[in-house]
Amino acid sequence: MQSKLQQGAFNAINKCLEVSPTDRVVIITDLESKHIGDALKLEVEKLSVELAYFTIEDFVSRPAKELPQQLVAAIKNFAPTVSIYAADGKEGELPTFRRPLTRMLMRELNCKHAHMIGITTALMEDGLNQDYDQIYKVTHNVASAVKDATKITVTCPYGTNLVTHFDPTNLKWVLDDGKIPYGHMHNLPSGEVYTSPVTSNGTYVAWVLGDHFASKVGVLEHPLTVVIVDGYITNVSVDSAAPAFYQDLVQEFTDYISEYENGKRLGEFGIGTLVGLTGFVGNLLQDEKFPGSHIAFGHPYPHETGQTWDSESHIDIIAKDVTITFEVNGEIQTLMRNGVFESKYLN
């Protein structure tokens, strides 16, 4: 019987990427995540398909200030149809390294791209060991429910009260249902639906932060309170009784969203559908899929959602124990209560 880690790798290769005999697979890993890269490599080798395996540190020191041309050439010469990024994400690498890499893989090479930033053994054994047939079903049920919504309200016992407006005609919902098509990128573990909103107003209480913050601070003991007005962050705060570390975190988060144009602008509204999880683990890659609400500021995935603006930065924040209601044609319906989907979306 294979380990849970190896079973997670099996699911990634066979259920999510559905690697076929004609595919050419490239795995990009780093020294920190090499054991996971190796597990993925083993599953690809079992299929007897063409495989290329690259370790980031063989091409550039971290954090990478640019996408090295030697790595670009090696990938293009191999001409993959399936690509996997199974590596950590270092501070500052998103605009300089990871985004140029994923754009090349998806847009130039038309790969099915599995993005596993910050992947750990725990995530391979947890999120990638869930029932992906059930995740597929729930994801499609949720997407069918909200795809025509013009307004969604998110509340929680800790102070979240956010009203977000949508344009279902021009801004589409994207399904991360566990199956990755060619020319697209999904994070693994999978399980979410997301879109880019028109505007949003209210307060959002965040227990997990994205990008490099997730690996740095994990699940917050003192959540950040983010105020949003007309779709832009206007204030970030934490309980005044929180330790100095959290006051510094507020400043670091504020500096991050202030660095690039539209960094404070709400770019993504997501609903996690990875049923089977039991709680946050402090890793965005999985926690944003936890059944509930997450939002992100900056890059709105315009090539997928149809949004007309863009940003070099992208940072998610995640609430917990949320109640989500949505409005379609003037009728308000409940999607989940206190972090639990209504039963009809699970069947």
From TrEMBL:
Listed GO MF terms: aminopeptidase activity; metal ion binding
Coiled coil (UniProt feature): none
Alphabetized UniProt keyword annotations: Aminopeptidase, Hydrolase, Metal-binding, Protease
Enzyme Commission designation: 3.4.11.-
Root EC class: hydrolase
Keyword Hydrolase part of the UniProt annotation: yes
Domain of life: Bacteria
Keyword Acetylation: no
Protein name per the record: Aminopeptidase
Species annotation: candidate division WWE3 bacterium
